[in-house]
């Protein structure tokens, strides 16, 4: 049944012939089972739900089973091997496509640990790139605020240096070590002391004003830093979710190609084995019996078609002869002439009545 054979016809064949088709059918069946497993795993990575994955995997397995069964059952044995190969070429191409589709999800499962390692590296790279990209949005503003804070602090330092210089000046004047070099607190000392006191008051005011401004800017920096961290935290789950089917296929492509290629060859051999078996197998008892039935039907249809053609040709000849003879009969001519006269009279009467009604 799985090989697409006529079971009633196969029952009357030898055991060897039956075993050949059992082998072909078993290959078709187990290929469908592998397709079901592969599709279920692939769909599970998409839906993350066992029931959906199993349901759609079953549908895919049945589809592959039906395709393989159709491919195998439509290859007919003939005397010309090249004719068989040409007949099987489209089916072999389809088998290659099916083998690729079946093998890829199983490769993902077989190399799952290696793929996870590749994905981890990619996630780390994405995390760093994401942080850099987010930092580019906030760093210029933070640096600008920090520069303004440094300027304000430098203003205080500069004012302190100037105030300290005035302090040293009026102290030196009092001690007589600089300025007028007169010991004691004279007018010059008083003047310099007043300048220092004014500068000290300005320094205190500057410290108060700049401290308020610096606190405000530091608060802005803290808010921007918190917002930056929040965006990093918000976007991180997206990076952690970078684990879908396409991501895993791309990660698989980064691994050495040879193991994947051998797995593909394995499934390709499984998928094409029923077709190749049909091609290389000699024409057996089942093929001869099937050919005999098909030949009988073809012959019968050819006979019926030829018979219909001859019946049509004969009927046309008879009709032509009959109507030619009828055309020469005087009685038929007179009868048809009489009926034509009656029809014309009826048409004339009807036209007369309609015109009379219009005039009235």
Automatic annotation (TrEMBL):
Q: Where are the transmembrane segments?
A: 21-44, 50-67, 261-281
InterPro entries in alphabetical order: DUF4407 (IPR025519)
Keyword set, alphabetical order: Coiled coil, Membrane, Transmembrane, Transmembrane helix
Q: Which residues form a coiled coil?
A: 135-162
Which top-level group of life is the source organism from? Answer: Bacteria
The keyword RNA-binding appears for this protein: no
Name of the molecule in the record: DUF4407 domain-containing protein
- Which organism is the protein's source? Lutibacter agarilyticus
Source species taxonomy: Bacteria, Pseudomonadati, Bacteroidota, Flavobacteriia, Flavobacteriales
């Amino acid at each position: 049944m799985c090989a697409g054979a006529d079971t009633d016809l196969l029952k009357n064949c030898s055991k060897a012939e039956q075993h050949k088709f059992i082998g072909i059918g078993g290959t078709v069946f187990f290929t469908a089972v592998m397709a079901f497993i592969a599709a279920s795993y692939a769909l599970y990575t998409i839906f993350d739900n066992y029931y959906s994955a199993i349901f759609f995997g079953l549908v895919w397995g049945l589809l592959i089973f039906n395709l393989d069964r159709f491919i195998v059952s439509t290859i007919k044995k003939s005397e010309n091997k090249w004719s068989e190969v040409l007949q099987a070429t489209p089916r072999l191409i389809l088998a290659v496509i099916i083998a690729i589709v079946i093998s890829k999800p199983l490769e993902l499962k077989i190399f799952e640990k290696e793929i996870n390692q590749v994905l981890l590296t990619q996630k780390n790279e994405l995390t760093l790139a994401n942080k850099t990209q987010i930092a580019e949005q906030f760093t210029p503003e933070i640096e600008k605020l920090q520069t303004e804070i440094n300027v304000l602090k430098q203003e205080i330092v500069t004012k302190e240096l100037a105030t300290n210089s005035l302090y040293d000046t009026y102290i030196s004047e009092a001690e007589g070590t600089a300025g007028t070099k007169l010991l004691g607190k004279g007018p010059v000392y008083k003047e310099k002391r007043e300048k220092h006191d004014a500068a000290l008051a300005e320094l205190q005011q500057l410290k108060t004003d700049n401290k308020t401004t610096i606190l405000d800017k530091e608060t802005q920096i803290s808010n921007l830093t918190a917002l930056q961290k929040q965006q990093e935290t918000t976007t991180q789950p997206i990076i952690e979710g970078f684990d879908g089917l396409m991501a895993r296929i791309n990660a698989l492509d980064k691994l050495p190609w040879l193991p994947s290629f051998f797995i593909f060859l394995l499934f390709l051999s499984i998928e094409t084995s029923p077709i190749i078996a049909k091609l290389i197998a000699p024409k057996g008892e089942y093929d001869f019996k099937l050919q005999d039935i098909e030949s009988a039907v073809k012959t019968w249809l050819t006979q019926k078609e030829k018979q219909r053609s001859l019946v049509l040709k004969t009927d046309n000849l008879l009709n032509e002869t009959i109507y030619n003879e009828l055309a020469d009969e005087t009685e038929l001519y007179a009868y048809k002439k009489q009926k034509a006269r009656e029809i014309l009279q009826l048409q004339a009467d009807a036209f007369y009545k309609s015109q009379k009604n219009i005039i009235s």
